[in-house]
Amino acid sequence: MTGASTDNAPPGTSGDGDCLPPGEDLLVTRAVEGDEEAFAALVQQHAPSLTRLAVRLLGNRTEAEDAVQEAFISAWRRLPDFQGRSSFATWMYRIVTNRCLNVLRRRGPVVPLEEADDVRAPEHAVSPPRIAEGRDAVRELRGALGLLSPEQRACWVLRELDDRSYEFIAEAVGIGQEAVRARVFRARRRLAQAMGDWR
What is the pTM of this model? Predict the structure, then answer.
């Protein structure tokens, strides 16, 4: 991944949560000029959502926090290359996604989403048996996610858990929209097969 390749697509839509918050454009400008306080403000602003993404991809909070920290260090070093053709949020999503993909590829078999807080049994289940059933289904889903390739997992997580558009995912992962659609489709089909007993 090079600095030039992470910043060459149009900004995402407001439906992606990719529009700049008030004052963020100024923070980015100052950070590009070397203002450490401005960059620290950007880190504080984006770290929670990026950490959620990394946890969903890696299934391990410690690894996720390390990946996000490394991504911000990389971003700080590469800020002079940032030209604003995509938003800072999209740029950071791509850096974090690629770091997580590298971790998954080195790791081999994907670890289930053990610590993803938003992949869990519903709290409104009406009885202990229903609660237990819901938890079993979540465990099955976590295991099924381990069957996906890192690339399929990334596209599925961004689409299904992060509610991102295909355009946003294409920019974040660095592939075309049709490739994103194909990976999401294959991931859904693989998960549907693995979760057949729960449909």
Answer: 0.70
